[in-house]
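Lab notebook page, bench 4
Experiment: in silico fold of construct C2
Operator: M.H.
Input chain length: 340 residues
Purpose: comparison with the prior construct
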Amino acid sequence: WSGVHHEKLLSTNAALVRAFANAYLHTGDDTYRDPAERTVEYLTTTLWNGTAFAGSQAPGASDDDPDVSDYYSLDPSDREAADPPTVDPTAFADGNAMAVDALLTVHAYTDDERARTYAERALDYLLSELVEDGHVRHFDGDDAETDLLADHAHLLSALTTARQVLGDDAALDAAREVADVALDELRTGDPDDAGPSAFVDGPREGPGLLDRPLRPLDHNAEMADALVDLALLTGEDRYREAAEGAVAAFADAADRFGVQVAAYATAAARLCRDPLVVEVADEAGSDLHRAALRVADHEKVVVPDADLEPGTAALLVEGERSELAETPEELSERVARLRE
């Protein structure tokens, strides 16, 4: 822990893509766009296993030469002559879901078609190979654990993003199934009780310490955040209530929070103050829909192909205030007016 670790994890790189993309959204500064795009290239080349994203790339040592120096510490000329580190091709549900979410975020802000293509391919893999009736396997293997909180939380986030960016109704249906399994199988307390009710990290029985479930703050925050999106996309209050219960379960633990407080604070803030919702009558990909995705607010929810009153192009709602917009230019103006 005292030295630099050069393993390249899918989850870490996917998180960086989303962070840099959101920084670019707020600033328009290519200083943030460039690393996002370079990392997209790494994900879609080195970590692409042909059907989904591989879990990681090793630090440098290989089976052929385990004593080789760390590949990433070599100077450029030596690195060019050395064999690249090996890649573990295992496609994990949580890491791939994070990559899908990140790549769709990049596409939303930049029209990067490569990011969209690989996101769609990875999402197809997840839904066809790792998800069945809302239950999620951690990877494609006989010994893979099923219904881990990390997998459900990140996949739910990816699916709600897919609905917003691609207008994918099938993704929204899958999101409901994935969320409902998590609510039924992973939530503590009485399901009919609206009080604090966190999610446990996985099944309550199994090998190792699985019979002693934990309540991880980071994955509870991710799940709560995704449930807020799902509630707004579906109009079903039960998802918002579940998010409130998960956030409330940690309300008295502020003195024990580490860096995970950032994600928790985001989820809590979106529950305390309703996020901006932009409903667009046009289908996904229209100029107005693309403009809605690029409003400088990464916590907003965009609903393409929305069921609006005839003649309404876009409806913006934030809390109890609302505005109408007809063009991309008007949309930006109306967002500013909402927040005066």
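Observations: Residues 10-27 form the longest helix (18 residues). The chain has a mean pLDDT of 91.
Next step: discuss at group meeting.
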